[in-house]
């Protein structure tokens, strides 16, 4: 099981082997953490995303899946893009959110990444309640069976940090 650490701040300032992006299926950028990663990481990330879209991801990256690109100018070797589910009170999409963490760690293992920084996937624009998102994130990382040594959750604000701290213990 990886060591789980928590940091409050901007994930684009982190040093890690891989930084996970809460992307959308287009892989062509957006707001929130996605916008911040592309801004600070520079155009090399978008260029590689476009190549993926022109290749085997012609229809985009499905929700719950993950794919790696260069990290461009970020202090990391790779960005792992994953697509969280939009929260729905009517439908339980927890498996898809868990899949984002599991698939990102699977890709990290393929790359040989030892340290991976995650944002709180789906808790912004996609409206997932923080406490539940934190529970799913921490449980999934603990049971993923990954070779990653350190999983660092990088939480943007105090509320998110508190929610994750309550789950990590
Ligand atoms: N560092 C760390 N966390 C951040 C940062 C940052 N620089 N910026 C925001 N967060 P969101 P989602 C937090 O909306 O809900 C995009 O437009 C934020 O406070 O970035 O998965 C994509 O293109 C929140 O807790 O991602 C998609 O269309 C968490 O990151 C859509 O938003 C996730 O918020 C994905 O929505």
Explain what this protein looks like in three dimensions:
The chain has 5 helices and 6 strands. With 169 residues, the chain is of the alpha/beta class. The chain has one domain: Leucine Aminopeptidase, subunit E, domain 1. It has a 6-stranded mixed sheet, sandwiched between helices. Strand 5, helix 4 and strand 6 form a beta-alpha-beta unit. Helix 3 crosses helix 4 and helix 4 packs across helix 5. The chain is globular, with a radius of gyration of 14 Å. The mean pLDDT is 98. The structure holds ligand AR6. The site of ligand AR6 has 24 residues, from strand 2 and helix 1.
**Strand runs, count:** 6
The CATH homology group name: Leucine Aminopeptidase, subunit E, domain 1
Rg, rounded, reads 14 Å
List the uncertain runs: none
Give every kind of bound small molecule, once each: ligand AR6
Number of domains: 1
Largest sheet: 6 strands, mixed
The sequence of SSEs as H and E is EEHHEEHEHEH
Kindly estimate the percentage of residues that lie in beta strands according to DSSP: 15-25%
Briefly note the structural class of the backbone: alpha/beta
Instruction: Please count the helical segments.
Output: 5
Q: Within the largest sheet, what's the order of strands?
A: 1-6-5-2-4-3
Q: Residue share in helices? A: 25-40%
Oligomer: single chain
Could you please say which CATH topology applies here? Leucine Aminopeptidase, subunit E, domain 1
CATH architecture descriptor text: 3-Layer(aba) Sandwich
Protein name: O-acetyl-ADP-ribose deacetylase
Domain Macro: 1-169
InterPro entries: Macro_dom, Macro_dom-like
Keywords: Hydrolase
């Amino acid at each position: 099981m990886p060591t789980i650490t928590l940091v409050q701040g901007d994930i684009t300032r982190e040093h890690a082997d891989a930084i996970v992006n809460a992307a959308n299926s287009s892989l062509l950028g957006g707001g929130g953490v996605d916008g911040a990663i592309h801004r600070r990481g520079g155009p090399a990330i978008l260029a590689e995303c476009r190549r993926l879209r022109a290749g085997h991801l012609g229809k985009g990256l499905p929700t719950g899946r993950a794919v790696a690109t260069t990290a461009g100018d970020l202090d990391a070797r790779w960005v792992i893009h994953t697509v969280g589910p939009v929260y729905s009170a009517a439908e339980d999409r927890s498996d898809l959110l868990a899949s984002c963490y599991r698939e990102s760690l699977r890709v990290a293992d393929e790359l040989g990444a030892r340290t991976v920084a995650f944002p709180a996937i789906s808790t912004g624009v996609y409206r997932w309640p923080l406490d539940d998102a934190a529970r799913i994130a921490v449980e999934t990382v603990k049971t993923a069976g990954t070779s990653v040594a350190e999983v660092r959750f990088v939480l943007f604000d105090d509320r998110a940090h508190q929610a994750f701290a309550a789950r990590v213990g």
